[in-house]
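Key idea: predict the complex, not the pieces.
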Amino acid sequence: MSSTILFVEGLVKRFSGLVATDDVTLDLRDGLIHALIGPNGAGKSTLINQLCGELAPDAGHITLMGRDITHMAAADRVPLGVGRTFQVPSLLDDFTVRENIGLAVQAHGGGNFRIWDRVAVRRAIWERADALLADSRLKERREAPVADLSHGERKQLELLIALAGEPKILLLDEPMAGLGPVESQEMVAFLLGLRGKVTILLVEHDMDAVFALADVISVLVYGRIILTGTPDEIRDSAEVREAYLGGEEESC
Amino acid sequence: MSRTVSIALGLALVILVLALVPPISQALGERSFPSLVARIMIYAIAVASLNLILGYGGMVSFGHAAFFGIGNYVVGILYYHHAEGVPLWGIIPGTDQLLITLPAAVIVAGIAALAIGAMALRTGGVQFIMITLAFAQMLYFFFVSLQQYGGDDGMIIRKSNQLFGLNLRDKMVMYYVILVIMVLFFAALWRVVNSSFGAVLAGIRQNERRMTALGISTYRYKLYGFVLAGMGAGLAGGLMAVFLRFASPDTLHWTESGELMIMVLMGGVGTFFGPVLGAAAYLFLQTYLSAWTEHWQLVFGLILLVVVLGTRGGLSGLLSRLTRGRS
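Result:
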C-alpha cells in the first residue's frame, strides 16, 4: 500500500455538550480518493474545517507527511500542501475567472508583499492560470466576472483554484452539491483524472459519485467513524445500511 | 490600447490645467484660488491613502486623521527645535529642510500606523471602526496636552521650510512643490494598487476566508496596507504644515477623520481618481457654501446624500458612466 499523506488520530471536537467529532481516526494514503459519507449532521464539514485549520480540535492529532499540524493556522497549512474547496463556493466575486485563478497561483508562488511590480506582467502566473483553464470548460468564460457565473461554474472554479495551489491533499466539501446530472458527470470525470496525482478526501452525498470515485470509504455517524473499507465492503455492510442507507436497496 | 492613450492624455491635460491655475487666477484677480487648489491637492493625498485601505482593502478606519496629524506635528516639532536650537529629548536635532522633514513625517506616521494597526486589525467590523477612532482621539488629547508645542492652540512655523534655495514662503512656489509631490504620490500609488500586493489586498476586501484558503495570512497583509496608508496620510499632514506654516491639533480630531471618509465616499470608494474628485468637491463646496451661509453643512449634507444615493460609485462612478455613454 502507498504511504500515508495525512494521518488523523483520535480527533475530538465538542460544541457545548454536543460531540461533533468523536475520536476520529483517518489514514489518507498517497494518490487515493478517500470518501467520507454520512447522514446530515454527522459532522463531516466540522471534520473538514478542523483538517484545514478553520476550527481547532479539542483533542487528538493531525499529521501531514510526518509533521504535526494540529494547531497550525489555516493559512500556514496551505503552503505545506493542504488544499480545500467550500461547500458553498467562496470566490472573489469582483474578479474574473482568470483573475481568481491568477491570484491563487500568485498566492502559492510567492512575492505577495511586492508593491513595486506589476502583477499583470508576471508571465509565469498567467501562463500557469491559462494552463489550468485549458483543461476546463471554464476556458470560454475566462474573462467573465465571477459574480456572473452559474452555480455549476462556480463549483468548477473552486476546484481549479484549489489545484492552483498544487496541494498534496485536497479536501473537497461536497463538490457535487447543487449540480445538475450533466455537470455532476463532468465533475466526476474531472476528479477521476486527478486520481493518483493528488490525494483527495471527498465529502459527498451523491452516492453514485462516491461509488464511482472512491478507493476507500469511511462512514461517519454522529461524529464517529463506524466503518472504513472498500466500496464493496461498505455496500455489503449491514451496519452501514442500518445507520445511513436506511436499509433501502436504491444505492446498490 | 486606445483607452490607455486617452487616460494618459486626460491625465496630462489635468496636470497642465493644475499647472496653469496660479497664473490664470492671478490674471483674473482670484488671489485665494490657488491656495484652495493647493489644499485640495494635499487632501487628495490623504484621502487616497485612506481609500487604499478603505476602498481597496475593505478596512473601514475611522481614525485616519491620526496619521495626518502626526505628519503635521512632525514638521512643526522639528521646526520648533530647529528654531530654539535645542534638540528634541536632547538627541534629535530640529530641522527645516523639507527633504528631511517630509520623509520624517512619513516614517513617524508609518511607525504609528504599525503600532495602532497591529492592535486594531485583530478586530474587524464595527470594533475596528471604534478602535481606530479611539486611538486617534487618544493622540488628539495627547497633542492637546503638550503645552510646549502650543497645546490646543497649535504651533506656528514662523519660517518656511527650505528646499534647494526655493522660497517656499511664496505661495506660488509652494503650489508647484505640492503639485509635483502629489503627482509623484499618485504615480507611486498606481504602482501599489497594480502590484502583486495590490491584488492580494483587493482579494482580502472581497473574501477574507477565500484568501486564507489560498494560504494568505490576511492579518499581515492588512497591517502592511494599513502602514502604507498611514505613511500617505503622514505625507499629506507634513505637507499641510509646510504649506500653512502651522501645526494644529485639529488635524487629529475625529471630525477630520470623518471629513476624510466623506471625501472618499463622495469621490467613489475604491476608485483610483475618486479621492481627487472627492477632495475637490468637498473643499469647493465648503469654501463657497460657507461664504453663502453659515449653515453650509445642512446644504452640504443634502448634496452628499444626493451624490452617495444617486451616483452609485460617487463622482468617479458618475464621471466614468458619462464618458462611456458618449463614446
